[in-house]
# Entry
Amino acid sequence: MAAGIKPLRADAARNRDKLIAAAADVFGERGLDAPLEEIARRAGVSIGTLYNHFPTREAFLDAIFPERIAAVDRIAETALTDPDPWNGFVRFVEELFALQAEDRGLNDALGQRFPLATEVNDACGRGFLQVERIIERARESGQLRRDFEPADLVTLIWAMAQVIRESVDTAPHAWRRCLAFYVDGLRADAARPVAVPALTEEQLAEVRRR
# Structure
């Protein structure tokens, strides 16, 4: 524990643990816009106790989602060991969106709807280094179109997050059909020149901020 930070009393520590467990369930079921009052109710504490431990929604997200985002790192590591770089790329995006479809909170977090959740965004940034390697392997193999950039995967994540958010209750696997069409369009032998460039890092940051 950092110097100068007092440990929580046992009852306070229990309340914090209950809040984190309840928040993980509520966000997973309802997404990151879920009412904080529902989290307090499930945890069996007052809303004042909730705010004492987590004064902002982003504080909850930073406590919960970096560990969940680590699952994406494991998917990426597996993709990088696939002897066929194209299969590794396809497997990565399929398993990534399967994770998002199972957890609405994770879907929102990976869609980066809360840019002030710094721990969440840092975790996303660390995982993105592996994603760049997955994309580069597939491009160098000649199977992924040469003009596909990591920034294009970011925009795909944003788009698929919305597809999942809107359809998962009615048609839980609709996103798979959408992704299949998209992936076929990424094959090098199906590629046609695209006049519009990929978003720059500055543009991506501005979109996230807005």
